[in-house]
Amino acid sequence: MIVRPYAPGDDAALYDICLRTGDNGGDASHLYADPRVLGEIFVGPYLRFEPSLAFVVDDGAVAGYVLGARDTTEFSKSCEREWWPPLRERYPREAFPDGTPDARCVALIHEPRRADPSVVDEYPAHLHIDMLPRVQGHGMGRALMERLLTALHDAGAPGVHLGVGAANTRAIGFYERMGFATLETSDRGRLMARRTGAAAG
């Protein structure tokens, strides 16, 4: 079980992991009519624009990943120029019934979330991390996070933020142990952040 840099042949596995962890860390396969739509938002653009900030857990097959963007504002501009336009053609607003998980993803494709300027001023980077159950509890999450935090620091990003669902209490505890502090809370979840560089003890 190792952490290694992302390789182009990993794409399908990363999309699958995104889906299989997309329900507050649990399997979301049964929730989506289109198995790729979640990954098109939370995996694909990172592999396209920030491949050097993508790392995976490999236990003979890819079983987890961390993805980062060093500058959230510039990353959003790149997505708006190159990533979202073809997806908006592929997924028109009326592609799925209102209120379904697929429809909510399509809404994000057409109206991506915008980061709070006051957050990105201090914590310009952001990340996503997901692991399948078989590699959880073996220190791989910490290893992924340490690898990315060091890479972000080396790339000049002084801080990083992330969002986590309110029901994903296991992830919240993990982020707190990794030195992340809560900046904002809502009914939906938390916005958390920390400085880059060496991970928490």
Automatic annotation (TrEMBL):
GO MF annotation list: acyltransferase activity, transferring groups other than amino-acyl groups
Name the source organism: Jiangella asiatica
Which domain of life, per UniProt?
Answer: Bacteria
What protein name applies here?
GNAT family N-acetyltransferase
A Pfam family it matches: Acetyltransf_1
The record's CDD domains line, in alphabetical order, gives: NAT_SF
What region holds the N-acetyltransferase domain?
63-197
- Which of UniProt's keywords are assigned here? Transferase
What are the top taxonomic ranks of the organism?
Answer: Bacteria, Bacillati, Actinomycetota, Actinomycetes, Jiangellales
Please list which residues make up the signal peptide: none
